[in-house]
Amino acid sequence: MSSSRVADGNAVLRRIRGPQPVHLIDRMVGNIEHGRFERSLCALTAIGALVTTAEVYLEHYKASFGNKMMWSPILVTPPVVIAGIGGIFSEKWAKTWLPLTAGIYTINGALGEYYHARGVARKPGGWRLASYNVPMGPPIMAPGLMTIVGGMGLLAAVLRRER
Prior knowledge:
Largest sheet: none
Shape: elongated
Oligomer: single chain
Distance between the termini: 39 Å
Number of strands: 0
Structural class: mainly alpha
Strand content: under 5%
């Protein structure tokens, strides 16, 4: 049997059976392949900001919020979460408010990198004893998580919406 007859037979079966249902995973993969996952990334940004801030709060609480700047990650989170949730339902929110708040969140994460590196430098021996001071001082890579979550919000603004 030739391949053209098989193709014709498949076309007949499609006409008889009607359109096949598209599975959720197939639709999700198709959206990602075509750069259409703005709503999903808005939701992930909101959830990621909540989880990250919960962890930041617990760690900064252990340090008794010794520096006033330790409150900044807590303060910049609610606008990102609200804009992320708004971006799920409104393209306008995803294109205006989410990039603004996510940009501030990203800058705050970068500022946290500076403060954590400065905290290691201020420990006795500073960076010369990095093998001791990096594990015992403020976690150097922790503010990077804020930067990544903020970057997701910025990325959501340039993507297309799902169908």
